[in-house]
Amino acid sequence: AIGFDLGIKEYMVTSDGEIINNPKILSKYEYKLVKLQRKLTHKQKGSNRYKKQALKIAKLHEKIRNIRTDFLHKLSSRIINENQVIISEDLNVKGMVQNHRLAKAISDVSWSEFCRMIEYKANWYGRVYRKINRFYPSSQTCNICGYTNAEVKDLSIRQWMCPKCGAEHNRDINAAINILNQGLKELCLTT
Fold it and tell me: N or C terminus: fewer CB in 10 A for the chain?
């Protein structure tokens, strides 16, 4: 069984402590994309050069999409092949994209598409995939003693120590372990 927490800096942190970095696909090609789009604005609309430039931009967008899809397929297949029970958080991606500072980064990581891939691959291969409630305080709860630390709501706090049991936690690994524990608890209640 595995639980995972999705993020922007680290794409995914598993309950095993494995950290998968975000490939930041869009940012790698952003300069090239801006350059091509700037050239397009200097072309006369409807001309052959305009169409050629628009085709170059479309090909670059397709390349970015293909790289992202390849990364998501490889990662989701690996998780499905290595685990029988997969548990994640039910994220409100539509609501998160409303934040104009994070919208581009959230769109680039494609959390919804990744969870969709995990879901249909779990059905194909007979695995159990469960999403826990998005309001469960996974990063605020100590995975050892169960103490909920309200101070950890601040996203800038990446490491914290439990005042009750003294355990030191990495925010993301702690959240992944709590997601796994909560998901297993919910699965036992439903079966």
Answer: C
